[in-house]
Design goal:
The chain contains four helices and four strands, in the order H-E-E-H-E-E-H-H. With 170 residues, the protein is mostly helical.
Length: 170
């Protein structure tokens, strides 16, 4: 039995918010005692200080020791890029799975409709006729007609737009 929006809100919403807020605040606060937040030219970010003490691969320059943010490249990956790529991969896989599930279910519905096309004609069509109990086979749509999968196409386009906008923003 599907849950109503009210049931989802009352039962699961607090956990959803907790799952979204607690890890992000924890990662943000973890950078403070590790002295990872430094000037990154345009903004403050996980960076070494002074900027010349570490290159992009994390190698230390021989002339300038890092005062703060040592191994910033490693923490940048652990705190930002790894979770980001995990979320991107998860969203992509979930949308693919959801699209395939809806397409499979729509095909099953079409197959069920094909097998249940026998209907009894209404009495008004048989006024005075002795064939009242006769059943008539309705026209079964061709395979091409049944493979339109309109709802699957709509859902696929919605998933592509959702994932596409998610990619563009990151």
């Amino acid at each position: 039995k599907p849950l109503s929006e009210e049931a989802i809100a009352s039962k699961y919403e607090k956990y959803m918010h907790t799952l979204a807020i607690i890890p992000t605040i924890s990662i943000a606060v973890a950078g403070l005692p590790l002295t990872l937040y430094n000037n990154a030219n345009l903004w403050c970010w996980i960076a070494a200080y002074p900027p010349t003490c570490e290159n992009d691969e994390g190698s230390h320059g021989p002339d300038w020791p890092c005062e703060r943010g040592e191994n910033a490249w490693l923490f940048r990956w652990a705190f930002f890029y790894a979770p980001l790529w995990f979320i991107i991969a998860t969203i992509t896989v979930m949308m693919i799975m959801l699209t395939r599930l809806i397409r499979r279910e729509e095909r099953q519905v079409i197959e069920m409709q094909k097998h249940s096309r026998v209907l009894q004609r209404p009495d008004s069509e048989f006024e005075g006729d002795l064939r009242r109990e006769q059943h008539v086979q309705m026209r079964i749509p061709t395979r091409q007609e049944s493979m339109r999968l309109e709802r699957s196409k709509q859902m696929f386009h919605q998933a592509v737009f959702y994932v596409g906008v998610f990619y563009v923003t990151w």
